[in-house]
Amino acid sequence: MRACPGHLRPGGPSFVKDPTMPRGRYALYDPHDHTPLGVEQFHCAPGPSGWRYVSQVTSPSGDRAGSVDLAIDALGRPLRMELQAIDWRVRGAAIDGVSWVRTDASGAHATEGNAAAHAFTGTSPAFLVAATRLLRLTPGASATRLRLVALTAPVLAPRTLDQSWALLKSEAHSTDNDPLIVDEYQVNELDTGEQHSIHIAGDVVLAAPGIELEDLDTPPSSFT
Asked: Any bridge partners for residue 159, and if so which?
């Protein structure tokens, strides 16, 4: 890998601090048997350089289970990604595909990795929003193939996978304020053949396998 850990240091683009930026809570569960996996408290905001999402994850018992910090540029590429689980941390960015450094809790052992992929993915809803910004799909267009590096708790071991995404439709839903535009995506897991739907409004996931939006204190932000 040509990148070194120094390229993956904390920091990144500045974002406008907006008191109305979405803050909320997702419930995470096993998409197959609906076993609760935890809760993700998040806030996110678009800015002049792209979009940023920050969250804390707690286990079903209420213990801290990890965190997510993802910043993407205006084209949807990961400028900075940091995932933390109880015993592992991964920091990555779009460098020669995507590159990352994975360390244990003590920081004594670090391994570097690189893959010819478009972006990262994982259990956090942040990665679904980031994928839509990267793809910029239009309703009715052919499905687009996406190669991702998946990082899932508890060990955050990297795994490369392929998906295809298609935007089925965009619909306006009436609210007390402005209409809410909801995009419905169809995602195919190319290695298993599984197919599922994802509903996203702005920078908030409304429904997806393993994800339930439980609370949102402001409307989703719109991307310009």
From this structure: 150
